[in-house]
Amino acid sequence: MAVSDANTGSNATAQSYKQLKEDFVSNLSGGSVAEIAHVCAVAPVVALLWSVLQARQSFFRPYTALGFAVDFLLNVGALLLSVTLYSSAPLLLNILLLTAAVAVYAVPPNLSSARRKTPKLPPNAQSKTWSGPPGVLSTKPFLTNYRGNMMILTCICILAVDFRLFPRRFAKVETWGTSLMDMGVGSFVYSAGIVASRPVLKERADGRATPLGARLMRSIRHSLPLLALGVVRLLSVKGLDYAEHVTEYGVHWNFFFTLGFLPPFVALFQSALKVVPSYAGLALLLGVVYQVVLESTPLKAYILVGPRTGLLSMNREGIFSFWGYLAIFLAGQDTGMFVLPRALNPRGALGGSSSKPIALLLTSAAWSLIWAALYFFCTDYTYGAGVSVSRRLANLPYVLWVVASNSALVLAFCLVDTMFFPAFYKAQDAKTEKEAYDTATSRVLRAYNRNGLAIFLLANLLTGLVNMTMPTLHVGSIATMGVLFGYTAALTGVAVGLDVYDVTIKL
């Protein structure tokens, strides 16, 4: 009898703690767009400090144990601080980092090291334009920096959100509003869209077009591992009775399903480019149509307050928000179309890009302003439509906010790149470009970028392990920082280890 009572009490305690965790992430209203921008700005400011260290002092060449420690503390530690100890003062953190960058820049440069480590360019580097295999596309340093930072911040937040030290205004909102984690999921999709533009650009450079059927089959093969991960996550969450926020995606849906269904639908929508001139136009058209349907039909009320009586209604958030994420993905593809090619498109700045940094900066700045203006007129109550952002719906304001913010981040990283590492843009051959790329990019960020999805999966597994082994809601600030530091160190160690041994895990 006593054993039975003990088991009953233990189960009741477990259920009450599970409910406490679900309440901890429910009914949140988020924070201001400005504060989120201040936190996101930490990444390009860190890139500035890292670039000053490298360009002026060749601090990370050769890459020593000390270099790795500083690399980790800058590119991972600063982001961790921005969402924990400095979460109430992200501007102060940015000022401190900028002050450090100015101080390092004031130190006389290490000219002997710079001459030894800077890639040597041919005498006619300024006058020739490199094209041809593999000269159609390039992996630019600022894209590695952008995608690596996005992945690191995402991995930090998915565990940090379970601790009280992480501000509730940074966690995902219930229905209306903006938050850092809402920006994170959209940024993940936008970043995937940038990468997805590579095969399209290669096809155009080769003067060929893949038939729809072949595109679909290729996209389905790419989707299957993601859908399998979605099923594994679903079974593990239900089997382990893990705390979950149903209104985030639904009863059975999760983010892996959203990622998995994107490639086939992108393959289908690519046929619409015969009518719509660009991926940006296609993204905007899809977002507008979806918003009109939300406002002119009962769909919005169905998603927000409808009963969960069948498979569709149980997962309505994930199913219908997919259209917003698809629009974000297409907008990311449009960015990839002008940041990845080497040669300037004859149509001009907004029609294509080049390895010439000024053209790239102008193009990125123009699109950042366009997306920001669209977001302003969509959300402003005085001069615009006054529609509120909703990540749960993935409505048009959410799409525009994510795209505008990420476009601005890409621009910021591109600006840092252009200022400190112009040698990359003057490269005449693959070897020279590779040397310039290695000089201009953090080893930690390259490692996260190389095996991003595998590291994200590992982060999810470690997050589950931490939550199953400790009551995160009852952990103090010092212990929380210890756990998060150890967690990020483990992820970074695995990522850099895979990179050192030249291992790429494709999922």
What does this protein look like?
InterPro entries: PIGW/GWT1. It is a multi-pass membrane protein. This is GPI-anchored wall transfer protein. Probable acetyltransferase, which acetylates the inositol ring of phosphatidylinositol during biosynthesis of GPI-anchor. A acetyltransferase, which acetylates the inositol ring of phosphatidylinositol during biosynthesis of GPI-anchor. Keywords: Acyltransferase, Endoplasmic reticulum, GPI-anchor biosynthesis, Membrane, Transferase, Transmembrane, Transmembrane helix. By secondary structure, the protein is mostly helical. The chain has helices at residues 2-24, 33-40, 42-57, 65-82, 90-106, 111-117, 141-160, 180-206, 212-239, 246-249, 255-269, 279-296, 299-305, 311-314, 316-339, 357-379, 396-420, 430-440, 443-450, 452-469, 477-500. The N and C termini lie far apart (50 Å).
Task: Based on the model shown, name its key terms.
single chain; 507 residues; mainly alpha; globular; disordered N terminus
